[in-house]
Backbone:
C-alpha cells in the first residue's frame, strides 16, 4: 500500500484499475462518492488490495454493451476468493481529445484501450485514422498530455480531458448511443441481502460440468424448470484444456429463494465444482430497462 494511504482506514478505500479519469474512476465516484479512490495498474492489483485488507471494495468492469465482455476478468475470477456485493452500470461518453490547438483533420492516429477503440471503430475509420492500442483510456490521455505528440488523438472520458488539460474535439465519439459498461463490486466479506419478494436480485456463480454427454443441458435444466431467468452464461477454458470448460452465470433470483435452491440441487448433481460469487440487488439501470 502506498505510504499516503497507510493512515487511512481500509473501509474508506475503493480500488480500481487505470489512471485517474478512467471510466472505472467515474464508476467509483458515482457509486461511492464519499470514499477514497485508489488507482491500480491492473485488475489483479485492485482485487489484491481487497484480499489483503488494504481496500474495502474493488470496482471491476466485466462487460460493455458495444464491445462485449472484458475477457481477462474471467481469468482473474478463478484466482480470487472475493465476493460480488453490488453491480453498477456506467454510461460511457467517449470523447476524442487532443492537445490544445489541434483540429479534427490533423488527427492521424487515435490511441486508447482496445475496448474503447472497438467501441469507436466507425468514427475512427470515418476520420481515416489508424488505431494505437494503449493500456488504459485515461492512461492514453495522460500519455498525450506528457508527450504532446502531433497528429495524435486519444479516446477517453470528459473527466480525463479535465484532469490532463486536453481539448475535446468530439464528444459522444462512440459508435452506438446508450453505450454502457457493467461493473461488479468485489469485497472480502459477503452478507446476503434479506429476501424480499418485491425486490429484484442477481445471483452470480461459476461452475464446471462433469465430462459426460448433455451435462450442460441437464445442469441448466433446473433453472428453466423452476422459472428462473438466466441473464448471462459465459464459458472459458480452464488451464488451456479443451475438455475442462468453466462457466460464469448470472441469474435473476435470490440465493435463498426455494426455486433457486432446487435449481442449484440439480446443478450440483451434474457439476464437478460450483463456486457461489454472491447475491446482490439488481441495479436500477437494469430494472428500468426490463421489458414490461
Residues:
Amino acid at each position: 500500500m502506498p505510504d499516503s494511504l497507510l493512515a487511512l482506514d481500509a473501509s474508506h478505500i475503493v480500488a480500481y484499475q487505470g489512471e485517474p479519469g478512467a471510466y472505472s474512476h467515474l464508476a467509483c465516484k458515482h457509486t461511492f462518492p464519499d470514499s477514497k479512490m485508489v488507482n491500480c495498474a491492473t485488475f489483479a492489483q485492485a482485487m489484491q488490495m481487497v484480499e489483503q485488507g488494504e481496500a474495502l471494495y474493488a470496482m471491476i468492469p466485466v462487460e460493455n454493451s458495444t464491445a462485449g465482455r472484458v475477457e481477462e476478468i474471467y481469468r482473474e475470477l478463478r484466482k480470487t476468493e472475493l465476493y460480488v456485493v453490488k453491480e453498477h452500470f456506467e454510461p460511457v461518453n467517449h470523447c476524442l481529445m487532443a492537445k490544445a490547438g489541434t483540429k479534427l483533420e490533423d488527427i492521424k492516429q487515435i490511441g486508447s484501450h482496445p475496448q474503447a477503440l472497438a467501441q469507436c471503430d466507425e468514427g475512427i475509420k470515418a476520420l481515416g485514422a489508424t488505431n494505437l492500442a494503449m493500456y488504459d483510456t485515461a492512461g492514453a490521455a495522460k500519455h498525450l498530455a506528457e508527450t504532446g505528440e502531433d497528429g495524435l488523438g486519444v479516446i477517453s472520458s470528459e473527466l480525463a480531458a479535465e484532469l490532463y488539460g486536453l481539448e475535446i474535439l468530439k464528444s459522444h465519439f462512440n459508435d452506438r448511443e446508450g453505450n454502457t459498461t457493467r461493473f461488479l463490486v468485489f469485497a472480502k466479506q459477503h452478507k446476503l441481502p434479506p429476501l424480499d419478494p418485491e425486490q429484484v436480485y442477481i445471483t452470480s456463480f461459476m461452475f464446471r460440468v462433469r465430462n459426460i454427454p448433455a451435462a450442460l443441458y441437464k445442469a441448466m435444466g433446473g433453472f428453466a424448470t423452476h422459472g428462473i431467468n438466466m441473464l448471462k452464461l459465459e464459458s472459458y477454458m480452464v488451464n488451456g484444456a479443451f475438455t475442462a470448460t468453466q462457466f460464469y452465470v448470472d441469474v435473476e433470483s435470490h440465493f435463498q429463494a426455494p426455486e433457486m435452491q432446487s435449481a442449484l440441487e440439480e446443478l450440483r448433481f451434474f457439476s464437478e465444482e460450483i463456486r457461489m460469487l454472491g447475491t446482490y440487488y439488481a441495479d436500477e439501470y437494469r430494472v428500468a430497462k426490463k421489458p414490461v
The chain has ten helices and 15 strands. The longest strand covers residues 241-252. The mean pLDDT is 91.
